[in-house]
Amino acid sequence: MGRDTLIKVLGDQVQVITFKNIQKWAIEKDDMLNKLTKIQIEKTIDNMKISNYKVSDIIFTKGSPCSQKIVIVIEGSLKKVLTNI
């Protein structure tokens, strides 16, 4: 099935479906997260939200409980920046 046909059938959901597939692949490739069952992976992905950030946006601040989040970078990359804030 071609891209144009997919867009006609699925509409705006094409990007969401693509991102969810990338999230699933990322979890399956991770040494720790790949131990989850298929149902656990699906429920985790269903509860994730897709966010867009600008280049200068801060994702984690120093001292924040980042161990309580799963971040999957779909496009771009994260950069560690040390500040005195």
Instruction: Give the strand content.
Output: under 5%
Given as residue ranges, the uncertain stretches (5+ residues, pLDDT < 50) are: none
Oligomer: single chain
What would the average pLDDT be, to the nearest integer? 83
Largest sheet: none
Principal-axes geometry comes out as globular
> What proportion of the residues is helical, as a percent range?
40-55%
What is the number of beta strands? 0
Helix/strand/pairing class, anyone?
A: mainly alpha
Cα-atom Rg, whole angstroms? 16 Å
| N-to-C SSE string, H for helix and E for strand | HHH
Question: What is the terminal-to-terminal distance?
Answer: 51 Å
Number of helices: 3
Quick tags:
85 residues; mainly alpha; 3 helices; 40% helix
Protein architecture, described:
It is globular, with a radius of gyration of 16 Å. The protein has a domain at 3-50. It has 85 residues and is mostly helical. The protein has helices at 3-10, 13-29, 38-46.
